[in-house]
Write a structure and sequence with these properties.
305 residues, alpha/beta, globular
Length: 305
C-alpha cells in the first residue's frame, strides 16, 4: 500500500511539475525593486548600447522592438542624418552580442529608462520614432509632456475597447513562457511561435524569414511582464485618444494578416483629428522593405509639424 501511495505521489508531482514551476516563477520572478531601480537608473542609462549620428538642430530618438536592436534603423539613419541629429539605443538585453546579462525590467521601468535617456541628450524637445515594443513603450508620450514634441509609431497602435485577436493572445503568451524556460527550450519555443503560431512569413511579413529571426529567449522578457501585469491586473493603461496631446503620426504596413491595432481605435484617431495615419506596402518590418517611402513620409511629416 505504501509503495502504491508513493508511486501515485510521484506521478502527481511529475504531472504538476510544469504548473508548479510556472507558478513559482510567476510568484518569485519579478523586476528589480523600484527603490533599487531608481538608484541604478543613471548607471543603466550609461551602459545602454547607443549610436549618435548627424548634426541637425532637431533630434530624433529611435526605439526598436522585438526581436531587433538599434541596427533596425540603419536605412532611416542614412537618410535622416543629413538634416537631423539621430539618437538610438538598444533595449537592455537585446544587444546583438550576448553579454551574458539578463535584464528584467517591466513596462514602467523601460519607460523610465527611455525618459532618462532622452533627458541625458540635453535637448529641449525630441521627436520619438518607435516600432513594435518600442512603440508600445513610447505610447505614453501621446499624453502631452515636457520631453517629446512629436511622436511617430510604426505598426503598433491600440485596440482601445476592442478585444485583441486570439492569435495575439496566443503568441504573446508563448513568448512570455519562453522567458521562464531553460534557455535552450526558450529558444525552441520562440522559433515554434514564429513558425507555427504567428506563421511569420505568411501572416506578419513576407520579407522576414524565420530562419533569420533572432531566437534568443533573453529578449522575450517584455512579454513576460505583459502577462505578469495582465494576470495581476496591473497593466499600464494606454492613453485615451481624446487625451492625445502630442503631434502624432501612425504608419502601418498593409501586407499582413495579423494586425497590431484596432479599426475602431484607428477611426477614432482620424475622427478626433488626433493624428495622421499612413498606410504603406509591406508587413510588420516595412521600414526595411519600404525604406525610401517611409523615410520620405517621416521627413515630410516632421517638417510639416
Amino acid at each position: 500500500m505504501k509503495k502504491i501511495i508513493i508511486r501515485i505521489l510521484v506521478i502527481v508531482l511529475v504531472v504538476l511539475s510544469p504548473i508548479l514551476y510556472l507558478a513559482g516563477t510567476f510568484v518569485f520572478t519579478g523586476p528589480m525593486p523600484d527603490d533599487e531601480f531608481q538608484q541604478q537608473l543613471p548607471t543603466i542609462v550609461k551602459n545602454l548600447e547607443v549610436k549618435m549620428d548627424g548634426e541637425g538642430e532637431e533630434t530624433i530618438v529611435m526605439i526598436h522592438g522585438y526581436p531587433d536592436s538599434l541596427e533596425l534603423w540603419d536605412k532611416q539613419v542614412e537618410y535622416l542624418k543629413q538634416d537631423y541629429r539621430i539618437a538610438r539605443f538598444t533595449l537592455p538585453g537585446f544587444e546583438l552580442e550576448d553579454n551574458g546579462q539578463r535584464p528584467d525590467y517591466n513596462i514602467q521601468q523601460i519607460r523610465m529608462i527611455m525618459d532618462a535617456f532622452i533627458e541625458s541628450l540635453d535637448r529641449d524637445k525630441v521627436t520619438v520614432l518607435a516600432h513594435d515594443w518600442g512603440a508600445s513603450y513610447a505610447s505614453h508620450y501621446l499624453a502631452k509632456n515636457d520631453l517629446v514634441d512629436r511622436l511617430i509609431l510604426l505598426d503598433i497602435g491600440s485596440y482601445g475597447n476592442e478585444k485583441s485577436p486570439s492569435i495575439n493572445v496566443k503568441y504573446t503568451f508563448a513568448l512570455a513562457l519562453a522567458w521562464v524556460l531553460p534557455e535552450f527550450l526558450g529558444e525552441k519555443l520562440t522559433l515554434f511561435t514564429a513558425e507555427n503560431i504567428l506563421k511569420l512569413e505568411q501572416n506578419v511579413d513576407a520579407n522576414k524569414k524565420v530562419a533569420n529571426l533572432r531566437s534568443d529567449a533573453r529578449m522575450t522578457y517584455p512579454y513576460w511582464h505583459l502577462w505578469n501585469a495582465i494576470l495581476s491586473k496591473d497593466l499600464p493603461q494606454r492613453v485615451a485618444v481624446e487625451d492625445f496631446g502630442t503631434p502624432f503620426l501612425f504608419i502601418y504596413g498593409k501586407d499582413k494578416n495579423v494586425w497590431f491595432h484596432g479599426k475602431e481605435w484607428l477611426q477614432q484617431v482620424v475622427d478626433l483629428n488626433k493624428g495622421q495615419v499612413e498606410v504603406v506596402p509591406g508587413g510588420h518590418w516595412f521600414m526595411e522593405s519600404s525604406a525610401d517611402l517611409v523615410n520620405q513620409t517621416v521627413d515630410d511629416w516632421i517638417r510639416a509639424n
